Structure formats: C-alpha cells, structure tokens
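One example copied in:
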Amino acid sequence: MLRIIGGKHRGRAIATPEGLTTRPTSNRAREALFNVLAHANWRQDGTSPLVEARVLDAFAGSGALGLEALSRGAAHATFLDKDAAAIKLLGENLRKLGETAAAKVVRGDATRPPPAREACDLVFLDPPYRSGLAAPALAALEEAGWLTPGAIVTVELANTEDLLQPSRFEVLDERRYGAAKILILRHAS
C-alpha cells in the first residue's frame, strides 16, 4: 500500500495493482518531486504549477501522482492507463478518497491517446523503465491536444536512462532518487 504524502489526504492509503505491470513512484521520489513542484515558480504569474492545475497522469498505474496532485490543490486530474486492473483500482482509489467529481479515468495508450477534451497544464509521465515510451508518448500527447502552452511535464525514467528531448520542450530541472531520474520539462508556449 502507498500513502498520500501531503495535502488534504495526507496519510491516506491507496491501493496499488499487484504484479509487475506497474511500478509506483517511490515515496521518497514522490515527496521530493511534489516539494519541488510546490515551491517552483515556473508559471508566468510566479505560482506553483500545482495550484488549481488540470493534471494528466499518463501511465497512471495506481494513480499515486495524480492523487497526490489532487490532495495538494490541483483542480482536476485525468488518469490514463491501458491496463484494465489499473483502471479498476484507480476508480476504487478515487471513490475511497472522495475525489470522483474532480477526476476522469480514461482507458488508453499514452503513445496513442484519445483527443483531449481539455488541455492539461501539469502532466506526469511515468512509463515503464527502459521501455523507450517516454518520447513517443510526449509527442503523441502534444499532438492529441493534452498539453497547454507552458505546461509543466515530469518524466520519470530509470536513473541510467536518457530521454531524447523533443524539440518543443525545455528542461527546467533534473533530479535523481535511487533507481529513478525525474526530468521536469516545460512545453513551448
């Protein structure tokens, strides 16, 4: 079981899918990432990218990143995953936290996403390590209208993995936490 680290749901447990199909972001990496996001001033108005954000959690798995964002002040989160068991668990986690009104769960492939109904300004991209899916997913999500101009995108990779940086993104930060490397990008305006 994972726990929400901060915000209004702090300490609440969320269920995670069994088996090897998902690899939840470690508590340490999640806490560090959200501390960075909470104190960042990457928006034009100087506020945190979490405040009132429309969030996309792609390769969502348990939904830990999107749920953490909702707990910390995001306005809405869309969870995208192609695994049926993960989708079922996401719905259960949202009901348990009372966040169904602020969320949408979409079954789909982040490398071939459905067209966005509304673009997001904070995106969590957490593909399986060493899968090579981060860059194609980023391009596909951009093409399908999931990213607002200036959107902040976090990409979690294996510590030794590199991301072929797409042309319309700038790297704002890079952090390493154990087996994970997290890149924080900004979508070109």
Q: What stands out?
A: The mean pLDDT is 90. The chain has one domain: 2-17+25-187.
